[in-house]
Amino acid sequence: DNEGDGKNDKSIDEKIDSFLDTPIFDPDAPSNDSNWFANLVKNDYNSAEALYVGVIGLFGVIVSQELLRMVKYGGGYVPFSSVSDGKLF
Buried b / exposed e across 45-55, counting CB within 10 Å, b at 16+? Predict the structure, then answer.
């Protein structure tokens, strides 16, 4: 077993907490100086937040529409193609 080797001292909950606490995007990082979104976050946070939420929401709507079409048309459906005759049901 790996008991006492020091590598697995953290519980799974602590590992999850550590992962969730890790920042994904830091607008103040030096690597983001020329990033337009990082500059927008620093200068106009409300607009950046609205843009981010809009993009995530649009992505969710598109994915959910495609999943609905896959359920409706079955295995022969090709994603992002037009197969409808104008009727929803």
Answer: eeebeeeeeee
